[in-house]
Structures are given as structure tokens and as C-alpha cells.
## 1
Amino acid sequence: MEALSTATVQIVWTIATYTVLSIGFNYLWSINRFFDIGYAAQILVGAYSFYAFERAGASLPVAACGALGISVICALILERFVYVRLRAQYASPLMSLIVSVGVLAVVQGVVSMLFTTQSQTLVVAEHYFRFSTVSVSYSQILTIILGCIVYMCARYVSTHTSFGTQVRAVQDNEQLARTSGVGIARVRSLSVMCAAVCATVAGIGVGLNTSINPAFSMSLLLDAVVISMIFGLGNIPRAIYGAMLFSCIEVASVWVVGPGWKDATTFSVLIMLLLYRSAKT
Amino acid sequence: MKLKNLSFSYGGICALRDVSIECMPGSITGIIGPNGSGKSTLVNMMTNMLPTKDFAHVQFTTTRTFQDVRLWKGLTVLDAVLLACESRGMFRAIISTKTTNPIAHEALDHVGLMHKKDVNVTQLSYGERKLVELARALASQKPILFFDELFAGLSSVAKERVIGILIEEKKSMKTIVVIEHNLKLIQDICNSVYVLDGGRCIASGIPEEVLKNPLVQEAYSGGI
Amino acid sequence: MEYLIHLSIILLIYSGLAVSLSVLVGKAGIFSVAHATWFGVGAYATALSMFGGYSYGTSVVVAISVTLVVSAFVSIVLLPLAKEQYAIGSFGYSVLFSTILIQGASVTHGTVGMFGIPRPTVFGFLLESNISFLVFTAVVLGSAVTILWYITRSHFGRVLCAIRDDEPALKVFHYNINHFKVLIYAITSAVAALCGTLYATYVSFIDPSSFSLTESIFILTLVAVGGLGSLRGSALGAATLMLLPEMLRFVGVPSESAAEWRMVIYGILLVYVGLYRPQGFFARPHLTAA
């Protein structure tokens, strides 16, 4: 019974984290239309900024706000100096992918220099709450609450605001959106900021629950790609359904084949999804 | 080439509906119609770019040029033409290091681009690239040739040259299908013409009669 | 002098990897980010075969055969995917391979790795000295690269360029494009595996970290910096970037942080190439594969 309760909490936490992760990736996909490996760099920046603030003695809310700020600024700088130029020269998706790999390599290298390649924990002292047979940590509750807030905000923005409509318009046909009066640069900047916020929240959530190291974000990025593809790339409101399905598959694979095969299972699902979608078109 | 009841849908959108076309060897057939009438879909089906179960046997006897010129930017003029006339087998392709082929040279000579055979295709003008496409289609030596808006972007001198080539190919008993918007050209060179509108064939016959058809005038030129 | 010979051997091996990936990504437009997987398959197959008592020659045949079969299978499975999706799919099987290496510890020794891989004996001559191994590596990889160069200059190379630039247009001319893609994928993977056989018998120790996604990205960097689709450019790019750690030491960067500095510099180079010189530093301007 306790094991089942623990698994349930783990699934809920995983759903919350992956939902946020997927929403951020979908925002980037909407404006860039290529698999941006730089999203993994944003996760790293967010998580390690939080770590740096915490180590400097900041409280959790201050560290979180500081991490969000730094992450958003870095994302906007990348957008302005790298991705704008890539689009201006009509770079192919292949070249864009290569550049985004370069961005991740730079961030990974800098993070490794500043914080070493060792795994770091984001929480010095963890509190646990016990409800009947369920034991939940403070960081898990925080991640679940943050995940719910991010999802509800993203869903509302996507379906009830002009920004959400504009993001969809840019995703479908940027030229037409521009001709229709949509401020493309503004939409891109805001989308990049949303993606940075999601990346930071997800990175901190994972770091609070497990640990962080310079290579952890790549695995998260690939999870985000799989989840986003389940119900369609760029579909922000449905990210939670993809996260639910993916979380169940992941937890089931850990129970059935063991934690060592988790990534292999993820990718098997990814490859099958890609092939299924390819067969449909 | 006899095509009967050709149909194709893109998802839920019907692009071609029960279109029947007959083209004889040694003739030039024109296909005209407003934008979105299904002309490109027809050509794509007949030239292996769209799947078709019933007419797969036709696909192996056809070649084409494209409305939007499609040459491979990493290749030279001669390379682009050689792709149409060299071996298709992958193992034979590995052992083949030929950089000349009399068929390719003849085709390039025909279109007047032999002097640019070693030039990268991206360095050619639009009209020259169209001529390379024509040379490529000729070099493939297929009995059925589809030309999709071949004359767009050509100078008057080049147009005359191309018309001369088409008439020569016609005399060699090739089956030529020309998709065009230039109605005068259709009248001048085509033996018969088919008019498509909304995925259906609304008229067919000799150009002079077809172009006088009120249905055709309404669909194609707005009744003017 | 010994150090120069060592550097030359490693340089040749990575040049072989870079050139084979350049043909795959640059010439054929098949964006694989998992070239290190085949490097690893070759290395592990050789090590396991030699530990099983087989000669180096037999081990190489085994390694290349296994690679040809598995890479052809993977290529067939991933064929229907568009370019960027293919890249993500290739991430996938790279992770799968790493997982198999780690989880299959009873065979591969997991993260501990395999020690004591013997040096090869070629025609009865044991390549114990580094100079003899260098000559052997130069001959073997020189032949492999020559074969790749020949392929790119043949009609097959012409077809690969067409597949890269506009695959649907090539369909009109009735080329069986899938066959060409599978064959070039298998050939370039076999060359990577050959590099793996040399690497395993030279360093005599292999572990999963040497063939991870990071390594694949590093090989991609060599190619992107040197020039996608340019064999000469890729080899020069490999030479330049492999010498980077030496240059870093020369300017006084401590060896503890050399790996991190390398990563930063490779990343900057990739971004610079993508933004300002997509044809690479050593390729001719019109050879823009991407």
C-alpha cells in the first residue's frame, strides 16, 4: 500500500514536471520550427542559477526569482544574437540544429567550469509530510503546485488571450501573421521568455527531487520532445495529456525492466511515435 | 497514354475526380485550367511523385520538368543531366565514374548549354535552369514527356528554340504533354487540349474549338 | 617523438570518423547524431572477438559485418523520417546503445570497461610499437577514405547529392532512393566501426563513455567546423580540433579544466560556423550542404 502511494506521488510529480517541460518546448517549437537543443541549455541555466543563489544563502523564493530572471535574460540574449541571425539567413533546420548543439555545449562547458561536473543537490534540508500511508517531500509538493500553476496559466493564455492566438498564427504561417499585423518580434520574445520560465521551473523541480549535473538537461530535453510529439508539436493545452501518458510509461518501465532501462524505453517510445506520425502523413 | 477515371485526394480534399486523358505518340497534348484545377496533381501522379496503384506502369515511361525549377544545387549542369541518363542501380552507380555521356551531351547541345556544362546550376539564370530541366528530360529518353509551364521565364529566342525541340520530339513519335497558361502557345503547338477545373475535365478536343467553349471561357478566363 | 606518434594515431582515427560522417551528413544529407555508436560497435565487437581468442583480422571482419547488418537495419527502420526527426531518432538509438553497454555488464563489463585489449598481429607481425601501429593505421584508414572519396566522385556520389538537395525531384527518375540511403549509411557506419577496431586495439581500454552521445556531438563538431560534405575539410577540421587541447596547454590552461574549455570552444565554433560560415572553415564556398 505504501509502495503504491509512493508510486502515485512519484507519478503526479513526474506529470507536473514533464507538463512544464513540454509546455516550454512547445513554445520554442511554435516560433522556431526546429528541434532546439538550446532548450536543454535553458534548463541548465535555470537549475544552476537557482543552485548558485541558494548556495549564496538566498531563501527559496528569492533563489527561484533570481533563477527565473537570469534564465529569461539569457534566453533573450540568445534569441537576439543567435536565433534572429539564423532566421535572417534562412538557415536550414539542420544548420539550426547544429547551432543549438553549439549553444548547449557552451553552456555545459561554462557550468562545468563554475560548478564542476559532479552532481549537486538543490536542497540542503528536506522536509517530509506524512498523510496516512503517503509520504511527500516539501520539494515534491512545491513542484506539483508550481507545475499546476504553470499549466493553468499556459492553458489560459493559449486559449483565452490574444497572445495565445498570435503564437498559433506565427506557428501556422509567419508571413501571413506578419501581414495581418501580428508583432512577430514581440511574439517571439514573449514565447522565448515563457519557454525560459518553464525550463527553469522544470530544471529546479528535477533538481529538488533528485540532483543536477551538466549532462542532466539533455535527458530532460529528449523527454520533452517525446511528450510534445504525443499529442502534436506546438499543442500547448494538450501537453498535460502527453505528460500523463509518458509518466505512466516511464514509471511502468522502471518497475518492469528497472531504472537502468528508463532512457532506452523513452527512446523506443519516441522512435515508434516518429514512425507512426510519419506513416500517417 | 490512356488514363481513365483518374482520381486523387489530399486527405479530405478531392484534387482530381474521374479525369480521363488520351495522348497519342507523335502528338503534343495541352492541359490547361485555372489555378487549383488539378493539373499539377495529374502530372505528379504520372511522374512518380504521388502514389497511384492503377497507373504505376505508366510512371516508368514518363519524365518531366517542374513548374518551379528543381535542380540539385550541389551539382553542375552536366551532373544534373547525367542523373537522368546514367545507371539507376546502386552497385553499378558506385563503379561508374563516367563524367561524359553522349546522350547528355546531345541533350545539352540541343538546348544550347553545352558551353556551361561544368557550371554549378545555382549560377545559371532562371531561363537557363529551365533549359537544363528540358535537357534532363530529353536525356532520360522516356517516351512520355510532361512539361509543366516550360515556357515561363524564357526569352523569345529561347522559346522559339524550345518549340523547335518539342516539334522535333513529336516527330520522333514521343508523347508530349504540355501544361501551360499561355493559350496562344497552346493553340500554336498542341494537337489536342484538355481543360481541367475543380479536379474535373470540363472540355477536350482541338484547341480552336475548346477555347471557344463557353464553359472553358467561364472557368479559365472569367467569361471574357 | 612518442607523443607526436600517439597524437598522429588519434588524429588519423578521428579524421576517419569525421570523413565518414561528412559523407553521410554532408553528401547524402542524412543527419545522424550517433556516429559514435558505430565507432563503439566496432570497438566492442573487436574487443569481445579478440578476448574470445580470434585473430585481429577475424575480429575486424566480425566487427564490420555486425555493423553493416545492424546499421542497415537501423537505417531501414528510420528511413521514413524527415531529416530533423531522423536526427532525434538517431539520438534515440545512441542512448539505446549506451544503455545496452551499461546494462549488459555480464558481456561488456558495464561502466568498468574492458581492459587489456591486445595489439593486433598483421601478417604475423605484432604491432607492438606505436610507429608500426601508426603506419598500419595510416594504410588502413587511407584506404577507407580513398574508397569513400571514390564513392563521392562516382555516379553514386551524384545521386547522394541529389538525395540531399531535393529527394522528391529525384523520384521522377526512378532511383530507388531508399536503397542508396541504406547503402551509404551502412558503408559510412562500417568505416566508423573500422576506426573503432583501431581505437580499441591501440588504447587497449574501452568503456561506454567513449562512445556516448557527447562523443557523437564532438564528431559532428569536427565535420561542421571543417565543412559538411567536404572530405578534405572534415579531415582538416578533425586535425585542427584534435590539436586544440595541445594549443590550450600551450597557452597555459590547466589540464583539470581543459575538458570544459574544450567544450566551450567547440560550442563557440559550432555557433560561429552556423551563423557566419555554414560551409565550414576548410571547404569551398559553394559546398553548402545545409
## 2
Amino acid sequence: MRREPPRSAADYAPLVFPALMLVVFFVAPFSIMIAVSFFKRDPAGFYKPDFVFDNYARFLSTFFGSVLGFSLVLAVMVAICCVAIGFPFTYLLSRCARRVQTVWLVALLSVLSLSEVIIGFAWSTLLSRTAGITNIFVALGLMDQPVALLPSFGAVLTGMVYQALPYTILVLYPALVRLDPTLLEAARTLGASPARAFLNVVTPALRNTIVATLIMVFVFALGSYLLPQILGRPQQWTLSVLITDQAIYQSNMPFAAAMAVFLVLISLSLVGLTLLVGRRENAQ
Amino acid sequence: MSGLSINAVTKRFGEFKAVDDVSLSVPHGTFVCLLGPSGCGKTTLLRMIGGLEEPTSGSIALDEADITNVPTHKRNLGMVFQSLALFPHLSVGDNIAYALRIRGASKEEQRKRVDELLALIHLPGFADRPVAKLSGGQRQRVAIARALALSPRLFLLDEPLSALDAKLREAMQVELRQLQQRLGITTIVVTHDQREAMTMADLVVVMGEGRILQAAPPIEIYRKPADAFVADFIGSTNLLPAEADGAGGAKVLGEAVAGLKLPAGMARASISIRPEDVRIAAPGAGALTGTVDFVRDLGGTIETFVQAGGATVIAVATPRERPDVKVGQKVGLVLPPESCVVLKP
């Protein structure tokens, strides 16, 4: 089908509704948040309009810096784990019979219907000392006594990877299904073992898809604030947790807004940097 | 015998028999075309030779060593796929050098071999180009060069020229044949184009419904087809019903044909006669009588469609021997007995 460029104002009509929604529910709240981040906090009330950089200045401390650093590292690790697990899995899935694929995809989609709270508490039970998986290891004779695996960094990472994995697979799936299977066969006829062919033919051929998926999971993980609280220690709380804390419990809207804006800027610049590096490598 | 031998190979996909009890021996250095309509099992057979499918039963041997259970990457073969399957993230040179890189050849060795192969396929200096920037014919050549990088024992091609336009395809057929002759490599090509098979092959293997119908040199397949399917598939032919007349002769379409005999004991048969062997003459004894239905003058050849005894017989003539006929005219069709192939009905 050939798409013709819109000619008259009426051709733009279908855009009115989504544009309106975008303005009302995204542009307006985000602008208000940016404005609030420059307001002054009113300890007696909420905040009063002003134009000060205090909120941003307060953020530039070692404490908030290290929390920001931790949040970024956690998000990067979640992204890498998800792609490292999801990519080979989705590749194998795309080579399965149609019916097997449907069953798996339906199962993965059903995970998406679980709320973050349920996922968090399910994992906190699974990793607990009293009712957790270590009891199974004890029964199998692998361990002497059950231990609590949380709160810990590993528990936070596990929970977040679990939550993000279905998204990862759903994003990778179309690209892997479309991948020409003869690419791999060609590599095999040229003397590459199946594992080697996967690594140096399938993976580089889908480089752009992988980068896009990493960015998506990274952004997704950056916003997570429930799982670190349920599964982690306070040291493992992300910036999102602090933002929630400031906004809701400390009633410091301007500071929360400033942190949120800062987080958006940092993640946007990281994504931009990744794309820039990718483009430069492609050009070579 | 050195070369490839396929022994009673069968491949089932569930209930469906894609390849059914196929045996074939291919002497070293032979150019073989597996020819047949789509779904006849020719690609499956090629993929089994390449190790990309496992035979349900039977065995495949190369130079007297059984390779039935040898994985593809240890078979030392070169394969060109219908989609070509060039690696999109690698340059022309890196695509060609892929097999060498897997074997751990040095950069210098790789460079040297790539230059050699690029010269062989008439694309010198293309090593650093991205494959996306190549034309269809160039991509084709790169795929061939990549498959030949390790001087394989077997060269397999799955409908390699089907993506090219007609002119380029004909040129590439000649080029591929010349390349194979120069390298003396055992080559197996899958095609559904009988002209392609006639142009390139030493041995044409016609397949239908998973079986080999006839395996013979191209001209023999054309002149002496084994059955009606082969006769019809290779070139165009007139398939006409014939019967013994009880006095040692034979009738075609109910009329006696001078000099034509059916084998003893055969009461009914099909006669295959190539259109270029049918001669148009004045109606008379020893010739079938018919009415001209349509004349197609293609410049290089003239095809005359004649209605005779309920069938349409096509006669092809060159402009030099142009038959002087008009639509609706009664004519005689002369079927020279030496050009008639008697087949089972």
C-alpha cells in the first residue's frame, strides 16, 4: 500500500484525539512537574511558586549521587540479564512448532497481568527462610538448613528480571521470527558449529534489535520502585524509591520533582549516547 | 567409486513422504541438476546431502565414507541458498572469508584467498563493499565465492538463480557451468527450470512425488524420456494416444501412421513426439488429417496448432520451412516413426 502525504487539514483529523490525550496526560503534567522542580518548599503547606535552583543543588550530594549511580547500575544489570536470558530463549522459541510457541507466549502474557505488588510478595515468599526454595534444597540434601535469601541485591535483581523478561521476549520475538533461518544454515555449511553460528551470525545480524531491547528494559527497570523496597535493603533502594518517599511521605514536591527531572535527563542522555555509538559503528 | 552415492534414502515429514527410496550415484566432478516441479522432494534431497535434514532411512556416502550422521559443519561442503543468505553485517570480503576465519586462518591467508575468489567471480576489488550495496547478480557471485572458499568436496546450490531476471539468469547459467568445469568440483543444483538443467548439467535427475523418474544426460532425457511426465516436463511435447492395429502397425488418434510399431504385447500406448519433429504436409495417406486451429508466428519459430482426432497437435517450424497454411485449412500431419517415443499409456 502506498501512503500519500496528508494534503488538507481534514487529513490530519485522525491525529486530533491522540494529540489531545498526549497533551492532557503527558505534556501538561510533565510541564507542571518541571515548573514545580523550581518552586520553593513551604514546610507549613505544600509549595509556593518561585524560581530557585535549591532543589537541584541539594541533589548534588554524595548520598543522592550514589543512589543515582546504584539505580543506573541496577537498571543496566536488569537489562543485560533480561537480554542474555531472553535472546537465546526467544531464538529457540521461534524455531519451535507453532503450537508450542502459542503456549509459551500465552504463559508469558499472563505474567504481564500480575501486578508488581503480587510479583514482589510472591518472590519474597519464595526466597524466605520459612517457606522458600531453600527448603526444597534441604529436602534434596543440597543444604543443611533453610536460609533467607532476602533482603539482598540478588533478590531485587531476580524480581526485576522476572518482571521485565516477558516484555523483553515480546519485543525480541517478531525480529527473531522474521530472521532468515538459512543465515544460520549457511554458517553451518561453512564450518561453524551451531553455537558458534548463533554467536557470530544471528547475534550481529540482530544487533539493532538487541540494542533497542536493552534500552527498553533499562528504561523500564529505572522506574521500578516497589520491588527494591519489598526485596531489598535500604542500601538497595533506587532513586525512584527516594522520589516516592520525598513526594508522598516528606511532602517535598519540589525536591521530588527535581529528582524526577534529573532522572529523566540522565536516562535520555544515556539512551542518546547508546544510539550515537551504535550509529557511528554502523557507519564504519 | 569416488564421488557421491545416495543409497535408498527416504525422508518422511509425519505421514508425508518428501523423498521416497531414492538411490543415485554421482561420479566425482559431475554437474548434476535435480529437476522437478515444486514439492517433488528435490530441495529436501539436497538438504539431506548437505546435512541440514536427516534421512528417515537410507545412507549417503561421499568418496566411500558414510556421511549420513556427520553434522553439516564437518562435511566440508559449499552451499548456495535460494535466499543467498549473505551475512548482512559483514562486508563482501568478510562474507567470503567466513569459513576461513572459522578455521582460524591468518588474516594474510584470508586476504589472499578472498582476492583469488573475487578474481574468479569477476569482482576484483569488491572486498570492502557492504553486501547491501551489491546488485542481484553480484550478490549471487559473492554467495558462490563464499561457498567455494575452502575448495569443498561438494558444491550444492538450491535454486541459486531464481531471483535473477531472465537475461542475467541465462548468462549466469553459462558462467556457473564454466566455473564448475574449471574447478572440476562435484556440483548438485536444484532447479525447476528445465532450460537451466539442459544448459548446465552432465546428469539431469528428474524427480516427481519424491521419486527419481529418470536420471540421464540432458539430451537423452530430451530424446528418450522414460515416461509421459518426463516427456511433458522437459521441453514441450505432443502426447498422443496410440493403439496396435492388429497387423503389426500402429494407429495414432485412430489413423494409421506409416512405419510406427508398438512393442510386442502392447495394445495401447502414448506417443511422445516433439513439436519440431512434426511435419505439416498436404492431407494424404500415412499422415494424420487435421484442421489448422491457430498459427503463432514468434519470428524465430512458427507454431501451428492443428486439431486432429479430438486432440491438439503442435508443430514447430523455422521461418525457412514456413508451412503455407491458414486457419481452418485441412492439412496432413506427418509423424516420422524414428522421432516417436512409445510410452506406457
